[in-house]
Amino acid sequence: MSLTPSDAPAPAAARPDWPWHLGVAAAAVLWWLVYGQLAPLAEAVTETLTAWGPVARDSHTGAALAFFLYDVPKVMMLLVLIVFAVTVLRSFFSAERTRALLTGRHEGVGNAMAAGLGVVTPFCSCSAVSLFIGFVSAGIPLGVTFSFLIAAPMVNEVALVLLFGLVGWQVALTYLVFGLGIAVVAGFVIGKLRLEGWLQDWVREIHAAAASGCQSGPERPTMPERYRMGLAAVREIVGKVWLWVVLGIGMGALIHGYVPEDLMIRIMGAEAWWSVPAAVALGVPMYTNAAGVIPIVEALLGKGAALGTVLAFMMSVIALSLPEMIILRQVLTLRLIAVFVGVVASGILAVGFLFNLLF
Amino acid sequence: MKSVKVYGPGCKRCETTASMVADTAAKLGVAVEIEKITDPRAIALSGVMSTPGISIDGTLVHSGGLPDAARLEGWLSA
C-alpha cells in the first residue's frame, strides 16, 4: 500500500468487488473437482503402500490405513469449506443485532429464537462473559440467555457439516433438531427456576445500572471484507485444529481396523441401557474440537454402536467443556454452573435414551 | 497521540488484535498509546459484547473478531 494517510479513500471504494467474487467461484469449482476424486486417489495410495509395504490391504492395519488416508484429506477439505462459508454467512449477524432481536421477548418464543440465533451468531467462548452481561443487562431473561449460551456451542456448524459429509444427512438433521431442542428446553427450565439471585453480585449491579453502552455499532463490512474474514478464519481455525483432526481420525482408524463388532454392540449397543449415562459421564470432562470427535463417531456407528449412545457422547463432548465453565465462573456462582451442567446433561441423557428406544 | 483501547479477556485473538494495532500505527507513523482492557467488568461497562473490541479516543470502532487490516489503517489515520 503506497497510499498516504491523508489521501487514503474508504477501503471499500478502492477496488471493484468482482475479482473477489470470481476468485471465490473459481476456488469453489476447484474444490469440487478435487473432492470428487478423493476416494479413488486415497484408494490408489493405499494400494500402492500395501503392495510395497509389509501390511496386507485386507488386514486390520490395512483397513485402518485406508480409513486414515481417505478421511484426513476429506475432513480437512470439508473443514476449509465450512469455516469459510460459515464465517462469510455469520458476518451478516452480530451479537449486537441478536441482542436487539431478543430484547423484550418473553420466555418460550424467546427461548426458541435465542437457540436459533445461537447457531448463526458469531461466538467464541472467550466472549461468553461479555455476551452474557450484554444480554442480561439489556433485560433479556436469564433462561433466554441460557438458551443462546447452550445452543452456540452445542449446535456446532463444523460438527453439523462433518456429520452430513461423513455419516449421513439423517444423523446430521437429528443432531440439529435435538441440539436446538435441548437448548430451548434447558433454557426454559433454568428460566422457570428463577435463579437470577445466583449470579455473581457485580453482575446484578450492572444489571441494575442498565445497559448504557448504546453506541452506534461499527460500520457494515463490504463483500471483499467478508471474504477476507473467511480466509483469515480458515487460516486461524485450520491451523488450530488440524492436530485434533489427525488425532481424531487416527482414533477412528484404530476403532475401524481393530475393535471387533460384537464387542462394540455389547458395550455400546442399544441393549446396554447403562451405555448412555456412561457415554455422558465420559464425554462431559472430555474436551476436543468438534472436528476431532466426528471421525470417532463415524467409526463407532460403523461398528454397530447405537445412535443414541453415540449422539449423547458427541453432544456432551462438544456442548459442555471445562474451559467454558471456568470462563463463566466469573459471572455465575458455582451453584448456577452446577444447575446449568445438570440441566444440559439431563437433556442429552434423554435424547440418548429416546433414540436408542426409537431406532 | 491517539489513545487506543483493546478490549478482551486475554485470549489469543485479543493479543493478535493489540499487536495489529501497534504494527499498523508504527507503519503509518501514528503515535498511539495502547491499553489492554482485560477485566470482564470493565469490558461489560464499555458496551463491547463480542471481543476483541477496539476504541480510539473513546469511540468504539470495532467489536467481534480480528479487525480488517484496511479498516484499521483507516481508523488510525483518521
UniProtKB/TrEMBL annotation, chain A:
Subcellular localization, as worded in the UniProt entry: Cell membrane
Membrane topology: Multi-pass membrane protein
Keyword Translocase annotated: no
InterPro entries, sorted: DUF318 (IPR005524), UPF0718_permease (IPR053166)
Domain of life from the UniProt record: Bacteria
Signal peptide: none
Family, per entry: Belongs to the UPF0718 family.
UniProt name for this protein: Permease
Lineage: Bacteria, Pseudomonadati, Pseudomonadota, Alphaproteobacteria, Rhodobacterales
TrEMBL record, chain B:
Domain of life, source organism: Bacteria
Disulfide-bond pairs as recorded: C11-C14
Ranges for domain Thioredoxin-like fold: 3-76
Short name of one Pfam family: Thioredoxin_3
Transmembrane regions: none
Disulfide bond as UniProt keyword: yes
Keywords: Disulfide bond, Redox-active center
Span of the signal peptide: none
Cited InterPro entries: Thioredoxin-like_fold, Thioredoxin-like_sf, THIRX-like_proc
Active site: C11 (nucleophile), C14 (nucleophile)
NCBIfam families: redox_disulf_2
Protein name, as recorded: Small redox-active disulfide protein 2
Source lineage: Bacteria, Pseudomonadati, Pseudomonadota, Alphaproteobacteria, Rhodobacterales
